[in-house]
Amino acid sequence: MAACGKESNPTFKKDQAVISTVPENVGESTSSDGITTVDRQPIDQVDPKQERAFVWRLDLFFLAIGFLGYTFKYIDQTNISNAYVSGMKEDLHLYGNELNYFTTYFNIGYMIMLYPSCIITSYVGPSVWLPLSEVFWGVLTCCLSTVNKAEQVYGLRFLIGFCEGTTWPGYFTIISQWYLPHEIALRMSLYNMAQPVGAIISGAMQGALSTNLQGALGRAGWRWAFLINGVCTIFIALIGFILLPGYPERPNPLSRFYLQDRHLAIALARARRVGRKPQIGITPKSFVRASKSWVFWAVAIAWPIGTNTVPSNYFNLWLKSLKNPNGTAKYTVALLNYLPIVGQAAQLVFQVLVCGFSDYLGVRLPFLMFHSAISITSLAILIVRPSNQHTYMAGWYLNYLGA
After folding, report:
1. Strand-pair partners of 176
2. Residue 31 exposed, middle or buried by CB count within 10 Å (0-12, 13-18, 19+)
3. What is the 3-state secondary structure (H, E, C) of 316-343?
4. For residue 174, which of 186, 164, 195, 188 has the smallest C-alpha distance?
5. Residue 303's Cα: distance from chain center in Å?
6. What CA–CA distance (Å, rounded) separates 93 from 57?
7. Radius of gyration of the chain (CA)
8. What is the C-alpha to C-alpha distance for residues 97 and 216, in angstroms, rounded to an integer?
9. CA–CA distance from 105 to each of 26, 96, 162, 285 (Å)?
10. What pLDDT does 202 receive?
């Protein structure tokens, strides 16, 4: 970023967006590598009222589209379980471990793409790479509506996971560049909220489609769900090309209708306030340096361990296994999709409360311990497997809170 000399003795006026050091000759320049950067004179202070308005503006546009994108990311990740209990198992003759393999192939693709995606994002920019990947996995999700055997699902699930591996690092990178440290936890909780919201929508959609579109145009309800999920994902991705902001020093040109020069000046001033450096491309040297940090390995180990303690994704499979005394299924296909919504809704509210209070009080560890205690309690119930079915079901619902 090119910067002009700083004015002396800046004057602060409360009714201005920023103080008088905001330059009038803000422009853009293109470096030799083709990256467009914003040239502006740095400012020293920002009117608190205008700063709050700026954060609200970010929340309204960026967080909104990011939330929708992450919601459909989770829908496209988990809809395989809803389809499985809604007729896919019988139609494709899946009577072995195929569902586990569907998840395994997805996770392999997801894992392979995580680090390369971070590198690509650092050079291409999240406002291009994220929605482009989302278009690809939306098309692949539509393709799931045409499968006739498990092997086709394996390949598509691997490719969907490969494309979705861009999402988490991409959105987190944007948040870390535009928000201050004390603002991040609540915003990340909104993205985590997208997981239960996505699961709720997926279950509700599958339940409704299994009832209302079963057999329409010769297609099973679970096939319609994949098709509709994919089309919605593509639509959200196209909007993302416009609304995702890029980086403060390399903004997305299409998002300039809501991030004007004065907003970018505020963003850069906030970044300097906390000593945040401009985003640069990841090099082999910087990757090796990061891998030497204990934090790198602690997160790499803790994350999969935490994921393995969330069996709630298989709640509807347990429900499907329950039978009436006469041997018939205890729950209808619609209920198999609707009952998990209770736990997902509770998870949504719980995440907002925990992350909101954590940000408000400025502490993390007590809330992490409380969250872990709930997870351990739920796992203890599920491991013991009490004969009382209501107690066992309570263990499943507690696991949603500990997810």
Report:
1. none
2. exposed
3. HHHHHHCECCCCCECCCHHHHHHHHHHH
4. 188
5. 15
6. 50
7. 24
8. 29
9. 49, 16, 9, 31
10. 81
For the record, the structure tokens of 68 come out as 């929708």
List the chain pLDDT tens, one digit each, 403 residues. Answer: 333 433 333 333 333 334 333 333 444 444 434 444 444 455 567 788 888 999 999 999 998 898 898 888 888 888 888 888 888 999 999 988 898 899 899 989 998 998 888 888 888 888 999 999 999 999 999 999 999 999 999 999 999 999 998 888 888 888 988 998 888 877 887 777 887 888 888 888 878 887 788 888 888 989 999 999 999 999 999 999 999 998 888 899 999 999 999 999 999 999 888 888 777 777 778 878 888 888 888 877 877 776 666 777 778 888 888 888 888 888 887 888 888 888 888 888 888 788 778 878 888 888 888 988 998 899 899 999 888 888 998 999 998 887 6
The CATH H-level (homologous superfamily) assignment of domain 48-296 is MFS general substrate transporter like domains (1.20.1250.20)
Domain boundaries, the chain: 48-296
Contact predicate 129/117, CB 8 Å: yes
Q: Are 99 and 153 in contact (CB under 8 A)?
A: no
Given a contact cutoff of 8 angstroms between Cβ atoms, the answer to whether 194 and 71 are in contact is yes
Rounded to 10 degrees, what is the CA torsion of 253, 257, 262, 267?
-60
- pLDDT tens digit sequence for 340-377: 888 888 888 888 788 778 878 888 888 888 988 998 89
Structure token pair of residue 287 = 């990757």
User: Encoding tokens for residue 24?
Assistant: 């009038």
Which amino acid is present at 131?
P
In angstroms, the first-to-last Cα distance of the chain is 41
CA 160 to chain centre: 15
Strands 27-30 and 36-39: antiparallel
